[in-house]
Design brief:
elongated; alpha+beta; five-stranded antiparallel β-sheet; 5 strands
């Protein structure tokens, strides 16, 4: 086998792995979104497993190709784009997400009032399914959470209400009774599908565009106070999504 043949094989290998890394992540995200792949398989096996290692391998191969192609970058740049840039960007995304996960508390819900926590209706519970996180009055982070990620040791054993107060202060009670039509408009503006409504309560579900991650929203309207609770259905950490959604809804209802 000549050196040219070996170089060609290396270029094709780098390009194939370079394309495979982001493609696996995209297939996982879209496949889970449309229901072809379970969320657990999409995240644990395809994204954090296969996708992660392909991005590392692709970046490594791409660097080798780049080193061997320094003298002929003019002809090799298409291969470098596919074989190095794509997997490197995918790897960078993984590193950023892991750093973000370490920086955020391992919660999967946010509420504006934990003194009188909102529950969910039987209809919404059926929609959530038996595999979803239980919705309890005073959720607490497991003391063993640090065994999963050492960076989460600071949250071990703490109540979600305390963590919400510290990390999501913008999720506050709206100091008025917001009419149900305003609540519905605010939820729908955030992509929440309303599943139940009354003059004092509105429930709905929001589904993410990728991975099909679902979270449920419950809003309670009392004289002088409107509160809400956002709860992910599955997943150990919400990556700040429930806080973000709760804060945006509060901002809309406070206008």
């Amino acid at each position: 086998m000549t050196s040219t043949d070996r170089s060609s094989i290396l270029l094709w290998s780098a390009a194939a792995v370079g394309v495979a890394a982001p493609l696996v992540v995209l297939i996982a995200a879209m496949g889970s979104d449309i229901g072809w792949i379970s969320l657990e398989t999409a995240i644990s096996f395809l994204t954090l497993g296969l996708g992660w290692w392909l991005s590392i391998l692709g970046t490594g191969l791409g660097l080798v190709v780049a080193a061997l192609s320094i003298r002929r970058l003019g002809r090799a740049w298409p291969w470098l784009l596919v074989g190095l840039v794509f997997p490197a960007l995918t790897l960078g995304g993984f590193i950023w997400m892991k750093a973000r996960a370490d920086a955020l508390p391992p919660v999967h819900e946010t509420a504006t009032d934990w003194s009188e926590p909102l529950g969910i209706s039987s209809t919404l519970q059926i929609a959530r399914g038996s595999a979803s996180w239980p919705v309890t009055a005073d959720p607490t982070i497991s003391g063993a959470i640090a065994d999963i990620r050492p960076a989460w040791a600071q949250w071990a054993g703490r109540s979600v209400s305390d963590i919400n107060a510290e990390t999501c202060p913008q999720a506050q009670t709206v100091g008025r009774l917001v009419p149900s039509e305003e609540v519905i408009a605010a939820l729908e503006a955030e992509g929440v599908q309303v599943l139940g409504e009354s003059p004092w309560r509105v429930e709905g579900t929001q589904t993410s565009n990728f991975y099909g991650r679902a979270r449920d929203v419950v809003v309670r309207m009392n004289p002088g106070a409107t509160d809400l609770r956002v709860v992910e259905r599955v997943g150990l950490i919400d990556m700040g999504d429930t806080c973000g959604l709760a804060a945006r809804i509060v901002a809309r209802l406070s206008r």
